[in-house]
Design a protein that fits this description.
heterodimer, A: alpha+beta, Heat Shock Protein 90, B: 107 residues, alpha/beta, 5-stranded mixed sheet, 4 helices, globular
């Protein structure tokens, strides 16, 4: 049985990021999504939303849509900030020694590694990040 | 995020309870770095179900400060989703992780 869909649009602020995570946790629990998948869902949402809230000058909102299928959750995250493709960031060196580790780009790296088919679109003045999250634990 | 301080042997323990994310990173960083000024710290993450890159940044900062001052820093009790994030980020190779506080204290 497919779980219900989720949609939430919030002002592009850091406070909204917490609100989004709280709402996603409640949604995942009500939809019977496993804790492991729920954690990945929250992580992907936070990395993208926090990026918008902190860096997208002039963005007024972000919104997340989750559409469940039999094997995947399809995610769409949009914001009205300046054109920016987060997926274009270079991957961090996850083999570097402690002293040399830099944290930049790690959020996007996590999103790419935890999801399938992550892609970016710019349309109607919106940044849109699409990806699929496997429902398999 | 609730942070409770206790000890295990000679080491200070910070028990973290909640999400280690964008919203809680600054508070957690302040507490961990203050504890590290007095010596080695074990961060007990058994009650942390979620760590984002903002949380990883805090743990990296703590590990770097520990290395700079010769103190120890370790994490214990990683839940499966947190362990996954550690592995994808390569943090399992730079921050010592143990199953229990006792193991971390005797390491």
């Amino acid at each position: 049985m497919a779980a219900p869909a989720f949609h939430l649009r919030l002002p592009a602020t850091l406070q909204s990021v917490s609100e989004l995570l709280d709402a996603l946790e409640a949604y995942a629990e009500a939809a019977g999504i496993s804790p492991g998948v729920s954690a990945r869902l929250a992580l992907v949402a936070e990395e993208v939303a926090a990026n918008v809230a902190m860096h997208a000058k002039g963005a007024s909102f972000f919104q997340l849509r989750v559409t469940p299928g039999p094997q995947f959750l399809d995610l769409a995250i949009e914001d009205d900030g300046p054109e920016y493709d987060p997926l274009a960031r270079a991957a961090p060196d996850t083999e570097a020694a402690l002293e040399d580790r830099d944290i930049g780009g790690l959020g996007v790296h996590l999103v790419k590694e935890l999801t399938q088919n992550a892609r970016y679109q710019r349309e109607d003045g919106l940044n849109r990040l699409l990806c699929s999250l496997s429902l398999a634990a | 995020m609730e942070i409770t301080e206790t000890t295990q042997g000679a080491k200070a323990v910070a028990i973290l309870d909640g999400r280690l994310d964008t919203a809680t990173a600054a508070l957690t960083e302040t507490r961990l770095l203050a504890m590290l000024e007095k010596g080695g710290v074990i961060a007990d993450l058994s009650e942390v179900r979620y760590v984002s890159s903002a949380g990883l940044r805090v743990l990296l900062k703590a590990a770097k400060q520990a290395k700079a001052t010769g103190a120890s820093f370790a994490v214990v009790g990683l839940q499966a989703p947190v362990r996954e994030v550690f592995e994808i980020s390569g943090f399992d190779k730079i921050i010592p992780a143990f199953a229990s506080r006792a193991e971390a204290a005797s390491a």
